[in-house]
Amino acid sequence: MKKTIVANASTHSAEPISDSNQTGPDGNGKGKPNILRVITYHRVANLDDEHLLNPRLISATPEVFARQMEHVANNYNAVSIDQVLDAIMNGGQLPDRAVLITFDDAYYDLTEHAWPILKRFQLPGTLFVPTAYPDHPERSFWWDRLYRAFVHTSKSVLEATPLGSLSLRTRDERLRNLKRIQDFIKTIPHGRALQLVDEICANLGEKRTVIKSVLSWNELRHLDDDGLTIAAHTRIHPMLNQMTTEEIREEVKNSQEDLKKENGKALPVFCYPGGGFDERVHSILQEFDFKVAFNTMEGINDLNSTDCLALRRTNITRRTTPMVFRIRLLHSFAPIDVWRHRKKESAVNFREVSDY
Fold first, then answer.
1. Of the residues 5, 15, 313, 321, which has the fewest C-beta atoms closer than 10 A?
2. 79-117: per-residue pLDDT in tens?
3. C-alpha to C-alpha distance for 271 and 127, rounded to whole angstroms
4. CA 216, 111, 178, 237 torsion: positive or negative?
5. C-alpha span between 236 and 5 (Å, rounded)
6. 75 C-beta neighbours (distance < 10 Å), count
């Protein structure tokens, strides 16, 4: 069994804002909640080297990530996914100020930056792997393909897209319209989404580049042996709610089978790519006896009352300053984070409908 690492909260450190978890969900002290904060990262990397991978996936530079993890180590109890499973399956109580640190997509640079920093502070982590990508450098995530095509094209206008003609005259215009296309792609059926990516990349004169973006299975096994927990993130990283029911079932089933084949085990833990899930996806996870799954909705969880197949997370981006990071982990800030997420989603949906 994998050793469980718990980072103990410092007894002398303090935060600028109170974060007491000792009362019940209604604040009246009736029963102790089982509060879990989940932090989401994608990549921890420097910005200087970015020309083949979309830099929007960089959640923090190594320097900033180290400061964030130092804050977690000094002020919170970082828990392993095993502790979360014990709380859900056996009624175990998480420590006060519990934080689960997660990474999506298994980008290759995790071993260079993020994992050494976690080890320095003795913090456990969980990595969600899209299992069709390890050992296949010829496969690129669609958002990285689009980034390369948009940034390196010689064209000044992209014609005949679902959002109309898009200007590519300046770098800012390219990045802004790339984001619009990416947002739109997440709203259409998966097969059509991939077809649209191929069409746009071809129109932009894409030069297919074989690069290593995802960790290999040998590297993943080494990380698992070293203490990092590995769990399923589908096979090909689709928005599951944009697939047929049978396609969803295959993605969920085969990702677990890949983990068992390559790593010898597969925990009943899942992460929805892009937060794409609905009642069909939820039902299929129950069918395959998953116990915990994570989406992209912002907020903090009480494992005693929440749906554990729809746990909320706090997504970290490069805009997350040290003060913002501290505030977003606070229990009292959770309702504001939820409101921010809903406002952002509404704005994106409005732009998609208006532009289309």
1. 321
2. 999 999 999 999 999 999 999 999 999 999 999 999 999
3. 10
4. positive
5. 31
6. 18
